[in-house]
Amino acid sequence: MIGLKARWPGLAAAYVGAVVGAGFASGREIMHFFVLHGTWGLCGAAIAGVLFGAAGAAALQRATAAGHRHYGTLMRDLCGGTLGAVLDHLGTAFLFVGLVAVTAGAGALGHLLFRWPGWCGLLVFGGGLALSLATGRALHLAANLAVMPVLAGVCLVAGVSAFHAPIRPVAPAPAHLPWPLAAVLYVAYNLMMGVAGLCAALDGKQTLRDALWGGWLGGLALGVLCVAATLAMLGVRAHVQNADLPLAATLPAGIWRFAAYPLALFAALWTTGSAAAVSLGARISDSRPRWMAAALAVAATPFALLGLSPIVTVAYPLMGYAGVPLLGGLAFAMTRDGRTRSTLSGWQRPEDRLR
Fold first, then answer.
1. Contacts by 79-85 with C-beta closer than 8 Å and gap 24+?
2. Which of these, 109, 115, 136, 35, lies nearest to 304 by C-alpha position?
3. Which member of 32, 42, 166, 334 has the lowest number of beta carbons within 10 Å of its beta carbon?
């Protein structure tokens, strides 16, 4: 029985919030990494959920045991000083890629809601985000958790709606990654972006048991959402596989498509973009991080003209390859710690056992 003081629900929610950002909410990630592989994509989504659970538990337990509060120190611990430093700097570059993807998603949302040209939505979103960052009114990353239930509901409603039609085998699209590799890359690049959120969720009060439960349950929840979204989009793949917001087409007409989904997607775009810009601004400039964050929001806007689909198709797999060493470091940490601590109680620090 888990005690009332257990903090694993918060860790699980933070894990889901660190991964389910704008790319997931648009459906573009799920389309590229799973749906394009046909029915096998469902297997890939399920495998991704297991990998998310194992990797999240390992990362949270390692960070808890060693007291890491920054993803750079955790990466150096897992992958060594040199490789960890490279991954730390790559993570900074990938934050800018994420900011570009968020802005591109805003352009697609503006077209979906108001039939604006893509560039119009980019300018409105980029300008508004830059203004909020410069005035110090950017939303904190934790605000992203407020839209997680709505986004989860969107995925589940879309997945349940897919059961109204008979499930038939769907052939994979040509010239794409093998589905097992796609599942691994999906987890790897999300960890490259999400480890920072995991470290930020730790405040020193969680036990290693909390880390274990939070990592596994958060990862399995991600797997359920991936499977639901994949199932929903398989039946309409031919019509939406090139769209920037394919998940929207799977929702039944009504409040989910025209109210809940647009509002949740906009909130995810805004909070994810704010968090990425603030993190980058703080790393680049110690004296004026707010103005640097605003400048980065403006700088990302021209790159967003490429559209969300090319960013997900080209940049995200490259980020996944860069994140493979992080997965390897987590796997090694699991075996290393497993050899030295045979039971969960053995993992706990002395101060944890007193709680």
1. 79/325, 79/326, 79/328, 79/329, 83/325
2. 109
3. 166
Quick check: pTM over 0.90? no
Domain count, the chain: 1
Identify whether 2 is part of a domain.
no
- Residue pair 77/68 in contact by the 8 Å Cβ criterion: yes
Residues 6+ apart with CB under 8 A from 65: 208, 337, 347, 349
Q: Domain for residue 3, yes or no?
A: no
Per-residue pLDDT of the chain (355 residues; tens, 9 = 90+): 333 344 778 788 878 877 877 778 888 899 999 999 988 999 999 999 999 999 999 999 888 888 887 778 888 888 888 888 898 888 888 889 989 998 999 998 888 888 888 789 889 999 999 998 888 765 554 555 666 777 777 787 777 776 655 556 667 776 578 999 999 999 999 988 777 777 777 777 788 888 899 999 999 999 999 998 998 888 777 777 777 888 888 877 777 777 888 888 888 788 778 878 887 887 787 778 889 989 999 999 999 998 888 888 888 899 999 999 989 998 888 777 655 444 434 444 444 444 4
Q: Are 225 and 17 in contact (CB under 8 A)?
A: no
Query: Distance (Å, rounded) from C-alpha 82 to C-alpha 232?
Result: 43
* Ramachandran quadrant class, 27 (left: phi over 0; alpha: psi -120 to 50; beta: rest): left
Give the CATH number for residue 98: 1.20.1740.10
3-state secondary structure of 38: coil
By residue range, what is the domain housing residue 26?
Answer: 8-353
Q: Give a yes or no: residue 84 inside a domain.
A: yes
Residue 259, domain member (yes or no):
yes
